[in-house]
Structures are given as structure tokens and as C-alpha cells.
Amino acid sequence: MSTLKNHVQLIGNVGQEPQITNLESGKKVARFSLATNEYYKDAKGKKVQSTEWHTIVAWGKTAEIIEKYAGKGKEIGVTGKLKSRSYEDKDGIKRYVTEVEAGEILLLGTKNGNNSAE
């Protein structure tokens, strides 16, 4: 039951090329946005798409996999947990951020919906 306390599962498309950072320790961190789509019918019965954007952060081996295989447009599944943090921007204003820290990723569809090998 403890794994259900802070557990996130998302399936979506990578929004832009992941930003990869190599830390002094030799560890990698990947940061990227993930778009998830939800469909519903409005009051007139018309199908409407709603898109949510999530910031994903991955460390170590997971970051390496993202760097190699999860480019812009790639459909992936992510499991992880929510992490919140704050920082001061260049103007000294305190900002708050909530991100998904990826524990595992699953490569799903093909990059940019193209079924041919790249």
C-alpha cells in the first residue's frame, strides 16, 4: 500500500527534445514536458480535446534511455512520484514548481507517429 501514497502514471507525447544535463558526479538528468490528452463531449455533443502539460524529470539510467530514445513527439508511459520545490527567479521572486520524478518509462508509439525505423 505504501507505493500508492505518491504514485503517478501518465501516457503522453514528449513535447520538445529533452534537456539533458551531465552533472559533475557523472550522473545524468533529463527534463522534458509531456502532453496528455483527454477527450470529452461538450453540451452540444461535439468531441473536444483537452491537453495537460506535465514537467518530467528523470535521473541516471532512466535519463540515458530518454536521451537515446524519447525525442519530441514520441509516445511514452511514465510512472513516478510528484515532487514540489521552490526557487527564486532572476527578479528575486519566489516560484513554486511541481514535477513528476520518473521512476520508470515505457517507450510506446513511434517517434512523430512514423511507423518506419529511423
Automatic annotation (TrEMBL):
GO terms under biological process: DNA replication
GO molecular function, one term: single-stranded DNA binding
Organism, as annotated: Leeuwenhoekiella polynyae
A GO-annotated cellular component: nucleoid
Protein name per its UniProtKB record: Single-stranded DNA-binding protein
CDD domains: SSB_OBF
Domain of life: Bacteria
InterPro entries recorded: NA-bd_OB-fold, Primosome_PriB/ssb, ssDNA-bd
SUPFAM superfamilies documented for this protein: Nucleic acid-binding proteins
Keyword match Lipid biosynthesis: no
Subunit organization: Homotetramer.
Keywords: DNA-binding
